[in-house]
Amino acid sequence: MVVIGGGPSGLAASVKLEEKGYDVTILESERELGGILMQCIHDGFGTKLFNEAFSGPEFACKFIDRVRDLDVEYFTNTFVKSVKVGSSLKEVVALNRQGVLKLSCRAIVFATGCRERTPFEIKVGGTRPAGVYTAGMVQRLVNVYGVLPGKKVLIVGGGDVGMIVARHLLLEGVEEVTIVFPEAWFAGLARNVQQCVLDFGIPFKPRTVVKEIVGKERVDGAVLVNVDEQWKPIEGTEVFHPCDTIIFSVGLIPNSSQLEEMGAEIDPRTRGPVVNEYFETSLKGVFAVGNLVTVFDYVDDAVETAFLAAEGVEKYLQGEERREKPTPLSPGKYLRLMVPHRVEWADGRDVVAFFRSSVEKENCWIVAKDGSGGEIFRTLKRYVRPTLLERLEIHRDLVDKAGRVVVDAE
Amino acid sequence: MPSNPRVLKNVERALNRYKGYNISFEVRDGIVYLYGRVKSYDEWVDVGLRVGKVKGVEGVVNKIVWEGFPWDKVRDREVRRRRVYEENVNRVIGRYDVVVIGGGVTGTAIARELTKFQVTVALVEKAPDVAVGATKANNGMIHAGVEPPRNTLKRKLNVKGCLMYERWAEELGFSFKRIGSLWLITPRTLASFKKFIPEPFYKVVLKYLLPYAIVLKGRLNSVKGLRVVRGRKIFEMEPNAVKDALAAVYVPWTAIVDPYEVAIALAENALENGAVIYTNAEVVGFIKEGDRIKGVVTSRGTLLCRYVVNAAGVYADEIAEMAGSPEYTIHPRKGVILLFHKSTGPLVKHCLAEIILPMHPRTKGGGINPTVHGNVMWGPTATETEDKEDTSVDKEDIEILLNKYSTILESFPVEKLIRYFAGVRAATFTEDFVIRPAKWVSNLLHVAGIQSPGLASAPAIAEYAVERLREMGLELRERPDFNPRRKPLRTIRDAGLEEIDQLVKVDSRWGNVVCGCEMVTELEVVEAIRRGAKTLDAIKRRTRAGMGECQGSRCILRLAEILSRELGVTFSELLKEEGELFDGFVRGESP
Ligand SMILES: Cc1cc2nc3c(=O)[nH]c(=O)nc-3n(C[C@H](O)[C@H](O)[C@H](O)COP(=O)(O)OP(=O)(O)OC[C@H]3O[C@@H](n4cnc5c(N)ncnc54)[C@H](O)[C@@H]3O)c2cc1C
Ligand SMILES: Cc1cc2nc3c(=O)[nH]c(=O)nc-3n(C[C@H](O)[C@H](O)[C@H](O)COP(=O)(O)OP(=O)(O)OC[C@H]3O[C@@H](n4cnc5c(N)ncnc54)[C@H](O)[C@@H]3O)c2cc1C
User: Fold this and answer.
1) What's the rounded mean pLDDT across residues A331-345?
2) Is ligand 1 within 6 A of the CB of residue A150?
3) A128 contact B CB<8A
4) What's the confidence (pLDDT) of residue B586?
5) What is the structure's pLDDT at A87?
6) Which residues 170-189 of chain A have a CB within 8 Å of chain B?
7) What are phi and psi of B70, to 5 degrees?
């Protein structure tokens, strides 16, 4: 068994598989295990899984310790160059300071996480000087290297990451931090708004985006512009905001290039691979878990997908029966995305799904319908909004009866 | 030389449109000097271009000012230059037969060409690296030479330079692919003229007349081998071409290169053959003796010299003026280019364009082309800009490009856009290359106005420039020990596994992948630094680290770490291109 990526999801999958008696090798490209958690020194990890709020590294250590206890083989600083999928055997070629590593295995779990969306992907205009960074990179710069990005910082994005980075930089000694975001209010958790922004009196501008980056060699500032509800810039509202650093925290994108190159089907909504209920991709015996599938707000949920995949690997290796035709699972009009994409195995546990709504609504019914529009299931969510990834469980026998399942908010 | 009265009259006529404006001019030896005032920058460009078109005019120096003219900026620049000049004029740091100003593809090519002879050569570049001007921000296309007007130097050197590239690529070890271009003719090609052409003829004109007119234009320009392609054949060559393409002209000679790789290779080879390259050396003035330049004053000290080559790109006009031979004004023309992820590479086989007449004022030609690394580019635009260093990109430019070229291919995943950038073309008002001895300085050679196709023409420009230096009196004896070869930077990107394994066994740094998107190892980065890279962008240009889909967000710190270690400087001293990357340590601590 090879697990690619040693973040929380990869580690969780490895631990589960090793516990089941499989021989697992983890390949991690960074110099240590733990994934992005290692740069998240704030707390709030594990509230669902352990009922406690750990810091990122603390949470990761729960799994790293298990990996060590179980003596799971792992390689850090190891880059996966290519993966070949044969009908039963798969070959992973990796590279590290010792040389080329060729691993043959019966199943692969991809847990390569996500990357940060770049300013180019949101088409920010202006120049491209020094001083323009992404939030995760700045976290690493500050935490790992002990270096500050600049003195006067503009943060773009009102999600959790943006808020956490803003507070962090202020504590570490930058002179000035301002946050701008296109929504009417912060997109992140209320807890973070209070503890990161309001408590520190950090200035922020809702309904505002960066129109242009200004500066030749280093950032001199940004032209900010107000936007309407559709995020369309309102002409005439441009103002110049002087600063020497602009940090973009504008979303995360699954690291699915390698899977895409291998021919795995990709979902344009999540930009991660299409998976079945045990998080197996369209390539048989190749699984994908955690942030690679879709970006999770809670690491606990990411870990759950890893546990499911571990069960899936077992089913795959034992040659359990698949359905003649998988049942497609898809998001309706008011959902932005949903995983998994189909139910493929003949038997198994109830289907765990995650979705993001495209609307904001209190006391919202989430309704599942079959192919002909007949309702098969409904559940009430206290509050749904685009920035929250919601979890949903659907009885397997309900799915069995429907030719397809469409889930929507009502 | 007395001014030709015909030229005087024609210039006057060209200025007719600006009668109420109080514009005056004088002509000295074929050079027109314009004075006065216009309302806008656009008018300033327009006046210059009108005069530039007059027959017999060899150059236009446009001293006209427009409303809102940046007097402050001009004054600040003068004051700064004077200060740097005073600081450095007495600090002689070297003595050379030839000093080449500008480290773009033009300057590096000329410097390298000169090292074939027994002369001492210095190249001075104001930035910390070579290839930072137009040379780093263009399409990397080696055009065949069909487009330039027939009686231009551009045409002559383009046609010749294009065919010299195989040899250059082989000697200098840079990537080069002669993939050819395909110019599509579609129902949109003559849409603006449709009302003048009766319907039954419209398609006939498009399918049978226009393509041959282009082939003929090629032949007149001495570009042979153009072919007309029609029907299924188009899609055999370019499977993803737009389905309603009626005909296409195939230009077999068009090629692609990585333009900064070319300039870096030239610079490395010039160094190898004894040239000296001064980076961070901005030319701020000259020491003159009569009509000769004795010394080139830079921000790093003064270089004494016998000959000077002005290849300073968009600044060539200011250099010429500083030297005492103002013969042209540059009107910078910006071009924006969009770059798409490598996974789109297989969708584009040739350099593609859709012929639309008349040409769009903001894009002119342009189109879609693959890069040697397998990415795809869309662009460029063409916009006049006041600021010579204005490489900003408007959202509007992006939309214009996405819109305009969307009809070339049947389908294309535009969401795979990973980066956009802009370069500035150094256009003169005569819109041709200016490669000639200065009129009023006897040992200065102008190599100015090197706009597109400057890259394609570079090998021929270098030879042509060196020939002019010979005519100016520089004695050129060949060097028996000239080594034309430059070893490319080794990469494991396309290497076999055995080979990689052996490399890692010899040096474990081959096994440390620092940029996952482009698969760049620590050893490549270290080697790039050893060859002279001092900044993050310099490493990027040499290794491609940071050029993939994440645009460096994952590798920039690993690169910074290696750079700081190899150069022995702290993080806060590291540069991106010319600007500082980071600030100090957290809470004022030190490591
Ligand atoms: C700033 C921030 C704040 C957050 N705050 C919270 C919070 O307060 N509470 C909470 O519960 N959750 C939080 N989260 C979410 C949580 O961290 C994620 O859901 C979780 O980290 C996802 O883990 P993962 O294993 O899928 O991905 P990652 O942690 O990204 O791990 C993927 C690993 O794969 C490696 N890798 C990638 N490509 C390759 C390759 N080709 N070869 C080998 N290895 C590779 C990477 O180096 C990385 O180590 C936060 C996330 C961020 C970014
Ligand atoms: C968008 C765009 C697309 C293009 N596409 C193509 C194409 O596909 N094919 C093609 O053939 N051509 C193309 N061109 C044109 C081509 O890029 C240029 O012709 C070529 O790069 C010019 O090279 P250069 O060395 O003359 O100028 P530059 O590369 O601009 O070099 C000039 C150098 O001089 C230095 N300098 C300036 N002032 C001083 C000073 N005072 N002291 C010291 N150094 C100084 C600058 O820093 C710079 O490095 C394109 C141009 C643009 C802008």
Assistant:
1) 96
2) no
3) yes
4) 85
5) 79
6) 172-174
7) -75, 70
Mean pLDDT confidence for A164-177: 95
pLDDT at A351: 96
Query: A245 has which bridge partners?
Result: A153
Tokens 């109830």, residue located: A350
User: Does residue B5 have a cis peptide bond before it, meaning omega lies within 30 degrees of 0?
Assistant: no
Q: Which domains does chain A have, with CATH numbers?
A: 1-115+251-320 (3.50.50.60), 118-250 (3.50.50.60), 323-410 (no CATH)
Q: Parallel, antiparallel, or unpaired: how do β-strands B227-230 and B181-185 relate?
A: unpaired
Spell out the alpha helix ranges (H) of B30-152: 41-52, 71-88, 105-114
What is the identity of the amino acid at A271? Answer: R
A203: number of Cβ within 10 Å: 11
**Contact between chains at A147 and B582 (C-beta distance less than 8 A):** yes
Q: What is the pLDDT of residue A34?
A: 94
Contact A159 CB / ligand 1 (< 6 Å): no
Q: Quote the CA–CA distance of A124 and B420 in Å, as a whole number.
A: 10
pLDDT tens digits, one per residue of A271-280: 999 999 999 9
Contact A127 B391 (CB under 8 A): yes
Q: What is the model's pLDDT at position B99? A: 98
Using an 8 Å Cβ cutoff, are B484 and B171 in contact? Answer: yes
Q: CA-CA distance, B502 to B506, in Å (whole number)?
A: 6
pLDDT at residue number A183: 94
SS3 call for B285: strand
- Taking CA atoms, A300 is separated from A12, A19, A60, A400, B583, in Å, by 10, 19, 11, 28, 36
CA distance A53 to A300: 11
Residue A344, phi then psi, degrees to nearest 5: -120, -25
Q: What's the pTM?
A: 0.94
Picking from B127, B279, B571, B67, the residue whose alpha carbon sits closest to that of residue A216 is B127
Confidence band of A295 (pLDDT split at 50, 70, 90) = very high
The one-character DSSP state at B245 is -
Contact predicate A57/A11, CB 8 Å: no
Chain B hits for A102, CB-CB cut-off 8 Å, are: 497
A276, A326, A395 from A377: Cα distances, Å: 20, 19, 9
Q: How distant is the Cα of A402 from the closest Cα of chain B, in angstroms? A: 34
* CA–CA gap between residue B565 and residue B573 (Å, rounded): 12
Q: Specify the pLDDT at position B364.
A: 63
Q: Decide: A111 in ligand 1 pocket, CB within 6 A.
A: yes
Q: Which domains does chain B have, with CATH numbers?
A: 5-69 (3.30.1340.30), 85-136+259-329+430-471 (3.50.50.60), 175-253+334-424 (3.30.9.10), 497-588 (1.10.10.1100)
Instruction: Give the SS3 label for residue B376.
Output: strand
Cα pseudo-dihedral B318, B320, B325, B330, rounded to 10: -60
CB-CB neighbors (< 8 A) of A142 in chain B:
586
Render pLDDT for A146-162 as a digit per residue (tens, 0 to 9): 999 999 999 999 999 99
Residues of chain B with pLDDT below 50 are: none
ipTM of this complex: 0.93
Mean pLDDT of chain A: 95
Cα Rg for chain A, rounded, in angstroms? 22
CA distance linking residue B458 with residue B165, whole number of Å: 9
By CB neighbour count within 10 A (0-12 exposed, 13-18 middle, 19+ buried), where does B515 fall? buried
A81 touches chain B (CB under 8 A): yes
Give the ranges where A173-298 is alpha helix by DSSP (H). Answer: 190-192, 257-262
The pLDDT of residue A149 is 97
Are B497 and A100 inside 8 Å of each other by CB? yes
- Contact check, Cβ <8 Å, A148/B418: no
> Closest ligand to A258 CA?
1
Any atom of ligand 2 within 6 Å of the Cβ of B295: no
Q: How many residues comprise chain A?
A: 410
Closest CA relative to residue A77, chosen from A92, A91, A97: A97
